[in-house]
Amino acid sequence: MPQSSRTPLYMEQYFPMAKNAPPQNKTKKTLPLTTARRLSIRTQGLDNHTPVSSGKEGTTQVVERLGYVQIDTIAVIERAHDHILWNHHPGFTSDMLGELLAIDRRVFEYWAHAAAYVPMADYRYYLPRMATAHNWRRESLFRKENKKLVKEVYERIRHEGAMASADFDYQDAKRGTWWDWKPAKRALEVLFNTGELMVSARHRFQRVYDLPERVVPGHVNTQAATPDEAARHFASRALSTLGLASLPQIRKLYANHGARKALDDLLEADEAVAVQIENQEAPYYALTATLNNTPRQQKNHLHLLSPFDNITIDRDRLLDLFDFHYRIECYTPAPKRQYGYFTLPILWNGSFIGRLDPKAERKSQTFLVRNIVFEPGFKDYDALLPALAKALHRFAAFNGCTSIRVERTKPGNFKTPLNRILKNN
Fold it and tell me: Nearest CA to 200 among 159, 235, 157?
């Protein structure tokens, strides 16, 4: 199972969800659903109207804007974290992220709602979460049963420098059989969860671990935030990232158990505003600064989004705000799949209008579109198909492919014209 699909224990055990009673609101602003959608898209930087700098600086800006970029191991196309950053930063290349992690130290890895790259500037806000990891059931049990192993793994890295789990893949008489790879790898994960080790780099996507004092730059504030400070920071991060969100959505994004009090504090300080969205029963919230900059309608923007993109990751929110029912089917047995193995939501002019099932066949450099399914009622094909062809050419190139083949579409009569446009462009 990809590491990002694992649910961290703190989400269920050590960050218990409080009752969902909404915070008390002094004021409430009513928004049309179309405006709410625009705000969500604009704050994500997906409206083609939110420029970023070139190169690594632009990549850093995107990570800081989004608050986190989810890591995933599925490689049927470029991995999710690279795909996400490319959508939000058209000039992105995967080496930029590797350098920001291993050289520039502008990002680090830890748990948001899942394994993620997060801004190094947020380090102090993750320290309370790391402190609680000592009490996570699996971590505490493993450490109790493997006290010597955990200490020896830590000490070896402290004395010998950064190491990957593969560096522990041996046995000999002197060291003992406890140097087996699997328990050593688990020890590394425990030490990572508790913050005693950090990921200093990735080699061929494998984590390399080192001590925090050798990873965190000297200028970064390492004074642990209080739990209340961290909760308020993550609540503000969630609203800044999402544009607007309900209390359960804020909690979900960062597994934020203190979200309700944090939101009350933001409302009291007039940093946030309660929002009633058209046709939505649950109250939503937005940063005051977000509502003071309501975006105009943007046209002719199309994105083939990752299933783990920040705007798509909360499937319930996606349904509520965009009326788009989406589930990833890579864990569904093939005969039961409705759309495909790893379908990408298609965002077009503020609406989700379909999904596309891709595969990068790297040996032949062919980008295979196994299936495209448009939403019922969508009719704007004359405008969409040229934009979709252009997006497919860009995405294929990002995946190292030089040709594109569309196998199926639904409705089926759009396969031939799409292939014709692709060939002529």
Answer: 157
Helix-strand-coil percent breakdown of the chain, rounded to 5?
45, 15, 35
Residue 255 lies in a domain: yes
Predicted confidence band of residue 228 (pLDDT cuts 50, 70, 90): very high
Spatial distance between the Cα atoms of 135 and 9, rounded to a whole number of angstroms? 10
Residues 286 and 309 grouped into a single domain = no
Are 148 and 278 within one domain?
Answer: yes
| CATH number of the domain encompassing residue 326 | 3.40.630
| Cβ contact 239:287 at 8 Å | yes
Q: Tell me, yes or no, whether 274 and 385 share the same domain.
A: no
SS3 254: helix
Inter-residue contact 296 to 49 (CB < 8 Å): no
Q: What is the SS3 assignment for 245?
A: strand
Considering the domain architecture, whether residues 287 and 309 belong to the same structural domain is answered as no
Asked whether residue 8 carries a pLDDT value surpassing 60, the answer given is no
Helix (H) or strand (E) holding 374: strand 366-374
Within 10 angstroms of residue 45's Cβ, the number of other Cβ atoms is 20
Instruction: Identify whether residues 328 and 362 lie together within a single domain.
Output: yes
Would you give the distance in Å from CA 242 to the centre of its chain?
A: 12
Average pLDDT over residues 166-177: 61
pLDDT given at position 263:
95
pLDDT of residue 298 exceeding 70, the answer is no
Name the percent of the chain lying above pLDDT 90. 76
Residues 224, 312, single domain; the answer is no
Domain boundary among 243, 267, 292: 292
| Residue-level length of the chain | 425
User: Which structural domain range is residue 147 located in?
Assistant: 1-292
What are the pLDDT digits (tens) for 41-86? 999 999 877 788 999 999 999 999 999 999 999 999 999 999 999 9
Using CB atoms within 10 A of its CB, is residue 158 exposed (0-12), middle (13-18) or buried (19+)? middle
